Amino acid sequence: MKRILNIINFIRGVEPREGRSIDLFEPVREQMALSKRYQLPTTWLMQYDSLILPEYTDFLKENMDYSHEVGMWFEVVQPMAEAAGIPWRGRFPWDWHVDKGFSVGYTPEERERLADVFMEKFFEVWHFYPESVGSWLMDAHLVDYLYRKYGITASCNCKDQWGTDGYTLWGGYWANAYYPSRFNSYMPATTEENQIPVPTFRMLGSDPIYQYDTEIGTNGQCVITFEAISVGDGILKCGGTSPEWNRWFLDTTYNSPCLTMAYIQGGQENSFGWPAMKPGLEDQFPLIKELELSGRVSVETLKTSARRFKNEHKFTPATAVTALSDWQDKGRAAIWYLCRFHRIGFMVDDGQLTIRDWHAFNENYAEPFLNTVCTSSACTYDALPVMDGLRWKVPGQALPSMKFCKQTDTEISPLTGEIADVREVGDNQLYIDWKCADGIIRISSTEQGMTVNFNDISGVIAYNVPADKNEATEIDYCPSEARIKFNHNGMAYKLLCTTGSLELTGQTMVFVPDNNTLKLEISC
Between vectors from CA 430 to CA 428 and to CA 434, what angle results, nearest 5°? Predict the structure, then answer.
């Protein structure tokens, strides 16, 4: 499958947010002109309030060619709720608060009624049912229902973020695409029995180095993504508005080791207005066309990508995101390894190699509103943290991490060096060679966990977590059993040291290799 890009524009019919006086049709018209000028396949996802406006549907019918598709953007709006016989509780005809505008704000039975109303209207307008359905946040019950009753092929949801716009997605399959669990739309399934056979693609395309631990403000984390209106952290001009960042991001995504696939979503929702998105899109589209003409990237519709994903992958595949150059020239690098059992996030900073993020996946870890209703304007979907550099961060204390170190009789110190090589081994194994003064350490990430060969270097991994970190995760250190036990929101799991040992050195838990080899595995 390798390297693909979807242009996804989703269309709202109303923009009630204070201070925004936006022509919502202008972006659709101008986006269509760009798609036609560069002859790029495009996916248009219609929110219900745009589906009932002939201005939008007539325009799409008259201008889409065979390479385009039209699908559904599933957020709840007033006319949709009322058509389903559900009293509207929103402040405006479209209310972005989670308990009003997203499926989790309604009972499972109401979600089905909303889906039926939407599908009936879609079929009435287009004379077919959509294959692609997207939403920033969509629950497993709804995705499964849309698949079983209407045969949808593809889904897409928001990138990882903490608190942005009132909802949190944290710890899941960080990029590309996965098959969700029947019990949790955000959790990759590990078995065919509990797998919804609808590939879910992560939207926007996040900066692999800097998005993860951007500061959390009054509206959650800032956004550093390929989104055409993304301006970074408000100080540095980066993300989709920056020509320099766009080129760096496309290059690092599509010219780096990725195992089975690399994916970016381009395009833009219309509710930001054309003036805001125009510079970013007009910079990105010729770059995308150049990649397509070179044969390095397949630009296609969301349903096309999903069909191919299903043909090539029975289960969620292992993929990687590799960023070895730093657009800020600070010498940082990031590598993400993703599979259906876990994700690992490696980080290089100040010449030191750490694991800043490691989350385990268990398909039975149910999402919070699978059978209940969200009554809050915000909600959190997460996975099972083994290391969480952002959530466990405590001001004034050392950052949580698993740091590659050198151990002597008197101290443990970071192994400073640089990444010498990153390469793919088959479809599910990623090698990282870390070159330091004493030699080269080889790290192998697999679906089972991670193996480290220290090659006669007196190396260890120091596991550092503040004692007063986030209370949602209980951690029990068990050196005699060579494991760390976790309990997160009632779900138990373990990090096993199957080769090597776990020792307490001073105030630090340390994984010590056996005969130069350390092997760590996740057990759920």
Answer: 170
pLDDT, tens digit (0-9, with 9 covering 90-100), for 288-339: 999 999 999 999 999 999 999 999 999 999 999 999 999 999 999 999 999 9
pLDDT bracket for residue 192 (50, 70, 90): very high
CA–CA–CA angle 323, 168, 231 (5° rounding): 50
Q: Give me the pLDDT at residue 469, please.
A: 84
Radius of gyration for the alpha carbons in the chain, expressed in angstroms and rounded: 23
Residue (of 260, 382, 381) closest to 321 by Cα position: 260
102-139 b/e with 16+ CB inside 10 Å = b?
A: bbbbbebebbbbbbebbbebbeebbeebbbbbbbbbbb
Provide the pairing of β-strand 184-188 with 200-202. unpaired
Question: How many CB atoms are closer than 10 A to CB 370?
Answer: 16
Comparing C-alpha atoms, which of 448, 342, 352 is closest to residue 399?
Answer: 352
The residue type found at 496 is: L
- The contacts of residue 393 (CB under 8 Å, 6+ apart) are 213, 399, 400, 466, 469
| Cα–Cα distance for residue pair 329/309, rounded to 1 Å | 36
Q: For residue 467, with 0-12 CB atoms within 10 Å meaning exposed, 13-18 middle and 19 or more buried, which class applies?
A: exposed
Render pLDDT for 79-123 as a digit per residue (tens, 0 to 9).
999 999 999 999 999 999 999 999 999 999 999 999 999 999 999
Position 196: which residue type?
I
Task: Count CA atoms closer than 13 A to 19's CA, side-chain side.
Answer: 1
Please give the Cα distance from 225 to 241 (Å, whole number).
Answer: 9
Q: Is 455 exposed, middle or buried (0-12, 13-18, 19+ CB in 10 A)?
A: middle
What are φ and ψ of residue 157, in 5° steps? -140, 180
Residue 58 class from Cβ within 10 Å (0-12 exposed, 13-18 middle, 19+ buried)? Answer: exposed
Which contiguous run of DSSP H or E holds residue 54?
Answer: helix 54-63
